[in-house]
Amino acid sequence: MSAPPSPDDGLSAADLAAKYGLSVSGARPGLRDYIRQLWGRRHFILAFSQAKLTAQYSQAKLGQLWQVATPLLNAFVYYLIFGLILGTKKGIPQDVFVPFLVTGVFVFTFTQSSVMAGVRAISGNLGLVRALHFPRASLPVSFSLQQLQQLLFSMIVLVVVAVAFGSYPALSWLLVVPALALQFVFNTGLALIMARLGSKTPDLAQLMPFVMRTWMYASGVMFSIPLMLEGRPSWIADVLQYNPAAVYMDLVRYALIDGYGSSNLPAHVWLVALVWAVLLGVVGFVYFWKAEERYGRG
Amino acid sequence: MAEDNTQGRIPTVIADDVHIVYRVNGGGGGKGSATAALSRILRRDKGESRGVRKVHAVRGVTFTAYRGEAIGLIGTNGSGKSTLLRAIAGLLPAESGKVYTDGQPSLLGVNAALMNDLTGERNVILGGLAMGMTREQIRERYQGIVDFSGINEKGDFITLPMRTYSSGMAARLRFSIAAAKDHDVLMIDEALATGDRKFQIRSEQRIRELRKEAGTVFLVSHSNKSIRDTCDRVLWLEKGELLMDGPTDEVIKAYEKETGK
Fold first, then answer.
1. What does the mean pLDDT of chain A come to?
2. Can you say how many angstroms the Cα of residue A102 is from the centroid of all Cα atoms in its chain?
């Protein structure tokens, strides 16, 4: 099989590739193509998120029951500390405070765990990235989808708590759907950004818990921001209230809790929720896509 | 396949002076203690920052593969064979140089996508989706995959979590899933040596089938016999450099002489 003389001899590699229509392996597709590829992988994204969710508790004796038990215990601990011991309710009636707190914990956990999963989405799955072809955005999207499904289990607990404290199902409960949909888009955008950062700097996985905890305490998970900051300059409360975590929390509370009326919401809250979601969704996606061809390097 | 090699050879993979460098965190010499890490951060030699060590795994490899060829990659452990395959597949970006390919080369293997805590059944579906098969394709081939793996020969194991499988059984299922898809440019990384003798024969046969369907095949293996059986051209890599590129017999002979076999 000694090479026979061929008209291709003497062509440079690039010319030879061009002549036979070969393309550069692992090149980044255009944004439109990328979205199409990602959509083509939607079944994988969903299956992967569900698999992760199931695998989480598959060794436990109670199995999938932990999907509901974990958020319940979580809410109970926060109630014990902030409701009974520290008493952060400050001006919120008891029958509002418990669902208020539980909603806050669950909704914030949704964002928190999406961010944490996002940081490790690429760096923790390098084996997968180096073995198979798929648009890498599948991973962070899949992880935030997993968190959304986890949140749906938490919602079961939340409904029970709301009813137990006198808020009964009403039409306004349907507002939960757009609120969580917007939050999901926001979380996914954030997870995409964190995934790119985390792929370069895995140390973020160590740092993020502290950032997230600070964010949690600043977002009024266990207290009402305007009531807590009474007498302080109003811009502080405004900044805190318009931060995305607080916005989505307030929207879900407003939808579910009878005693939590629109007077507790900042002005134009739905618009703000929409802007945050679109902003982070678009920016996060483009930012992640820009480094698509480099994720395998780790 | 020699006949279409002589005239009008169509290249399917062109590697042009490919270099690949891994960056390893926490491998940066010195003691592994916190103070050592801190001093590394503070010292910060120019460019080469903070305890990141570079491993130059592939150094300037150039070759052209043509349609219909089956190419073996040999070399001692750590010579850069698997890394080169990943670069051809576009999974690992090259530091410099370029790889041009016809279509999307794929690595035979889904291990990384499977989860030990899930049942074999769900892993078949998950693995298939991860490789880019549609749900319909998986449904069509599901029974074939399970039968081929022989997992159910000793009872209904496919509905048990994969962590309950013996290592041989798990390897067989993984191979069966991976081999269920057709590929343009197929790359096989030591996949032949899985399972018991019976399964090895079956998997070698399946690889021959895949080879027929695929345009070009790359095979990484430490078994000179399976390289001889399947490949008509061999690349010998050593320390990331291409030491030899030629017909199987010639290269294997030189390799055996060198490794003293």
1. 88
2. 18
In a domain, A2, yes or no: no
Residue of A nearest to B134 (CA): A43
For residue A274, give the nearest of A189, A155, A192 by alpha carbon. Answer: A189
| Domains held by chain A: number | 1
Instruction: Output the CA torsion B228→B229→B233→B236 (10° steps).
Output: -40
pLDDT tens figures, B146-193: 998 888 887 888 999 998 988 888 888 888 888 888 777 888 876 556
Q: Is residue A20 part of a domain?
A: no
Domain span at residue A246?
31-292
Residue range A78-97: mean pLDDT, rounded: 81
**Other residues' Cβ atoms within 10 Å of the Cβ of residue B78:** 13
Angle of helix A42-56 versus helix A31-40 axis, rounded to 10? 50
B118 lies within 8 A of chain A by CB: yes
Is A292 an 8 Å CB contact of chain B? Answer: no
| B86 and A CB contact within 8 Å | yes
Answer yes or no: pTM beyond 0.90.
no
A196, β-bridge pairs: none
Q: Parallel, antiparallel, or unpaired for β B96-101 and B11-25?
A: antiparallel
What CA dihedral angle connects A79, A84, A85 and A90, to 10 degrees? 100
Percent of chain B that is helix, strand, coil (3-state, to 5): 40, 25, 35
Look at residue B16 and tell me if it is in a domain. Answer: no
- The CA–CA distances, whole Å, from A283 to A199, A243, B231 equal 17, 17, 48
Q: By three-state DSSP, how is residue A176 classified?
A: helix
Count of CA atoms in the C-beta half-sphere (13 A) of A90: 13
Q: Are the beta carbons of A58 and B106 separated by less than 8 Å?
A: no
Q: How far is B159 from chain A (nearest CA, A)?
A: 14
B2 touches chain A (CB under 8 A): yes
